[in-house]
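sry for the spam today, last one i promise. C-alpha cells for design, 99 residues
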C-alpha cells in the first residue's frame, strides 16, 4: 500500500472513532513528531560540533603534563577520599539509617 492510500485509510478509520480516542491518536502523532524533531536537533548539534573549528588550537598545543608527572596513588584511595565528602555527612546518615 502506498503512502497516500495508507493515509486515506487511516483517516477513514479515525473518523469512525469517538473523540477521546481521536485525542489519543493526536497525542501519539505529536509524540512521534517530537521524536523525529529531537533526532534532527541532535544530529544537527553533533554536526555543528564536529565541523566546528573552535578547539583546533588544541591540536597544535604543546602538552603541559607528561606521564612522568602523574603520581602513583591507588584509584581506590582517590575515589574513597573524594566520595567521603558526600558520604560522611549527617544528612547521609539520616537518609540511610533505616537500611
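last one done:
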Amino acid at each position: 500500500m502506498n503512502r497516500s492510500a495508507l493515509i486515506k485509510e487511516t483517516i477513514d478509520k479515525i473518523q469512525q472513532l469517538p473523540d477521546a480516542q481521536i485525542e489519543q491518536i493526536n497525542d501519539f502523532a505529536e509524540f512521534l513528531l517530537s521524536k523525529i524533531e529531537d533526532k534532527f536537533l541532535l544530529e544537527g548539534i553533533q554536526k555543528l560540533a564536529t565541523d566546528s573549528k573552535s578547539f583546533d588550537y588544541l591540536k597544535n598545543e604543546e602538552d603541559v603534563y607528561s606521564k612522568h608527572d602523574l603520581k602513583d596513588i591507588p584509584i581506590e584511595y582517590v575515589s574513597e577520599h573524594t566520595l567521603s565528602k558526600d558520604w560522611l555527612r549527617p544528612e547521609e546518615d539520616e537518609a540511610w539509617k533505616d537500611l
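Residues 19-51 form the longest helix (33 residues). ok im logging off now
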